[in-house]
């Protein structure tokens, strides 16, 4: 197992968690302690559900060095702690285009310190919309599973809380922004300028194109 610690001291707790992860996620692990704790807590059986072999966690600050040594392969999950949104998008375009790697998870996660670019997603469980605009960062894989990772600002506590969900989709392209409209629907602003509308039905999502596009559906998958 390959373990790269980003900005954290080596500790007994870290190695204990990494040892547990080695059994859950067979293969090489490049990770940060904070995200390890979150994923172990929320998705203890994630490996069995996704049937993956390798998982990497690392910071965008070290990504150039990473790609100079290791070439991404299929079945790889990569999670960035995005300190620079523009850099993250550029990395995605250069290294994870559909032509190059169809099976790769590219998971963006807003940094707590990145408040300027941290326009945050709503909590999909509560169906509440405290903000008018959100950054919608995700990647679709061939297995049609999607991670949503972000930090949500708590107005009462004046602090950020980590949110992470797994969504199963029938078809969905990369979108950048998500906006609130007059009703309880969500409007996705697509890079190709195609507007899609989220109609929330409990934990299921129905997406209809505002133009003559395909009907899209999302289903929230809770891993227990």
TrEMBL record:
Domain of life from the UniProt record: Eukaryota
Keywords noted in UniProt: Nucleomorph
GO MF annotation, one: rRNA binding
GO biological process: rRNA processing
Residue ranges occupied by any Brix domain in the UniProt entry: 1-224
Protein name (record): Brix domain-containing protein
Source organism (scientific name): Guillardia theta
